[in-house]
Amino acid sequence: MLLIISGLTTRAQETQKMYLSGTGSDHTVNWQFFCTEGRNSGKWTTIPVPSNWEFQGFGKYNYGLAKDSLRGKEKGLYKYEFTVPAAWQGKAINIVFDGSMTDTEVKLNGKSAGPIHQGSFYRFKYEVGNLLNYGRSNLLEVTVSKHSANASVNAAERKGDFWIFGGIFRPVFFEVSPQTHINYYAIDAKANGNLKAALKLSSVKNGSITGQVYSLNGQKVGPAFSVKVNSGDTLVNIGTHIVSPKLWTPEFPNLYNVVFTLNQNGKAVHTVKQRFGFRTVELREHDGIYVNNVKIKFKGVNRHSFWPTTGRALNKEISVGDVKMLKDMNMNAVRMSHYPPDDHFLDACDSLGLFVLDELTGWHQHYDTQVGSKLVKELIEKDINHPSIVVWDNGNEGGFNFDLDHWFDELDIQKRPLIHPWGIFRGTNTQHYINYDYGTGTAMHGHDIFFPTEFLHGLYDGGAGAGLDDFWDQMWHTPLSAGGFIWDFADEAVVRSDKNGALDTDLDHGPDGIVGPYHEKEGSYYTIKEVWSPVYLEPREITPAFNGKLRLENRYFYTNLKQCSFSYKLAKFDGPYQKAGIAPKTGVIASPDVAPGQYGNLQLQLPVDWNSFDVLYVTAYDVTKHELYTWSFPVSSHDKITSRVISKTGGGKPVIEETDSLYKVKTSNGIELEINRNSGILTKVKNAKGKIPFNNGPILIEGQDQAGFQKLTQHYEGNNLVIEAQFPSKKTEPMLKWVIYPSGWVQLDVRYWPIGEEAALLGVNFSFSEKDIKGVTYLGDGPYRVWKNRMKGTSLGVWNKTYNNTITGQGTVVYPEFKGYYSNLYWMRLETTGQPITIMCNNQDVFMRLFTPANPAKTYNVAPAFPSGDISFMHGITPIGTKSQKPEYLGASGQKNKYFNYDKNIEDALPLTLYFDFSGK
Description:
Number of strands: 64
Subunit structure: Monomer.
Domain Glycosyl hydrolases family 2 sugar binding: 45-174
Cofactor: Ca(2+)
Distance between the termini: 66 Å
Strand content: 35-45%
CATH class of the largest domain: Alpha Beta
CATH superfamily of the largest domain: Glycosidases
Structural class: mainly beta
Protein name: beta-galactosidase
Enzyme class: hydrolase
Number of helices: 8
Oligomer: single chain
CATH architecture of the largest domain: Alpha-Beta Barrel
């Protein structure tokens, strides 16, 4: 079935497009197919086009870094029969391939359409008007070799650190124009309103080209303009000036259409239309990259064209969804890694607003000059008119052919900057994976524009958001920094049709994403969303004296905050046993008049009872009413929330029994505790319903053997039983005290110091049988776990998490992950196969630790240390690194926990007060 758009029913002078394939992975057309090697080879069958044949059950899956036993042998033979209208005879007709992997030979009706095309990611075409049977049947035959006969093509794109596939993975179609026609047009529309265009012509006689700019709703913008054309002209330049055009930026992606019409003998012969935007890009050496005279910090990510069930074959819905996710993370830029993308992705960047770095493939090695020159021309010819593209990339990480640089300069009418990603080139330093504290005269301390096209290499749950807060603070305040691009957007995991649908990342090569293979949001997603919010709210404590004023910074480049909108919500939290029963109160916050780069205040008009609530949420929205971020500010203290949950009275006096090694305690409601008299450690918990497997704590995470425990004593304070340890002066642990109340609640007070001035981990451990855990409900920051260098992106609330033992980025992953560290604990309720356990925390800045996450197969720097035990309450946790860097190289928050207390005053020791309800209610 053929699909015709701008079809045969439209005016003859418009270019017609007739699809031979489908338009994308969501709309395909079956062609005949024969695979020469691997699965299902050696027989004719059918295959959907566009597609990669591995996902259809053919050939062999290959990751680029792996050796391929079928290299040079695996080919796909395609056949497709079709008819074209007899009315096409005499017209100029091109057959167009938007992408085919990789060497592609095309025949029509048994005759060659032209030279074999080499290079996977580029649009190529052949003029085939003289090969077609008009009004009759035609046969298209295509032979696609997965690997190229050209060694440099294989080196540049088949041996990269990404999956390689075979097949016609982008659409195939005819372009049909009159013999006299405009065959190419390149537009340069500057921010000052000057518009010029270069048009290539075929078979023209004396006449003219006229142009007219339109708004997207069809209204004329400015007067028509024209240029004379002489017989035989193959290139004309035309231009106009538009007064005060609306400019294109990621924040305001204003677009226009321009229509060019070729006129001969007073008659319109051919008309073309192009969408574009007015904007000016400049690279000012030793200064920065400017768009519309504004210096830009690029908040970007690297993106592969990829989907787990279809490989590189995509569709418009996926492209639009990807751009929306990037925008939702408050990104303003994306780098095409490591090849040009589908048209529909660039269209989405144009219309929704993202800066784009468009890239010629070259992963550590480059195309030779002959093939590379052809591919540069194809890249620029297809993508030149997209206003989103602001920088060209010649290769990646050493895959630069310097002999190709001049083509970008000569072929781009807009003269966009050219970079060599990972290189120092033309005033830009784009080195990858630099450390936070780099050497004098380099990176952010250098003299070139610092613009890392890859940094914070994600792997499993490491990198990406981890370390970003430190890096971005430095980048934001360093004038020569132009921002950077995180590696990378999504885990590149394929659904293996040869392995029962298993997700395969080729071990540690593919799980680098901020999102999972199906774009499941990982913890770093929300960290990035907060760190890169263009509205920056300064941290502050909400005290009873709060006057409703929050200081902010406008980190937009083109938007005044008066164009945004803001709201607040006051809420009361549920407790571990009951609902709060109080409806939240919401309100609108007046948008302040704060220009880009300036500071101002949000003035909240809160109700008089605002401090009777537990939390204040403040939300910022962009000009389209899309949420930028929601911040949470605690209103109620830990003590306030604790005091309304626990009850210390209401039962008989606890009874204690001493043995040689134990204190055995019974309460009137049936709770039984055993505490070791030689350590103060809880060894056993039981109630009337049975044993509770929570014990073996508190044990200091570091330095328990030096705690200096002397003895344990017990006494009553009224009806409260107090069991207290004694320590020598200025030892690691100056306090360990249990208080058992008549109500059955048990209080634990611990104070301690780290050994020395720094520690990897700070806190106390308890044991709990992991096989008995079903989940946890808690009040604290969530729902995602945190690392020491990835604290942002959470929200204060009551979160309900079901147990899972997932490994981020490995296999089928459950999000959010269960195991790990969670910040700012108020209370937690362990849901078990037996009885629940409720624990209240009466201190700020305490982390809840839930078990130890399993490590991936290769850990690199992304398997931080965890304490022994199972459940921990901590003042200091570990940071996480990236694939290539240890966490201590990623900034201050990647260092060990520092704590100074030279005098060892007990008042300055780290405090921990916990309350336990072992009643099982």
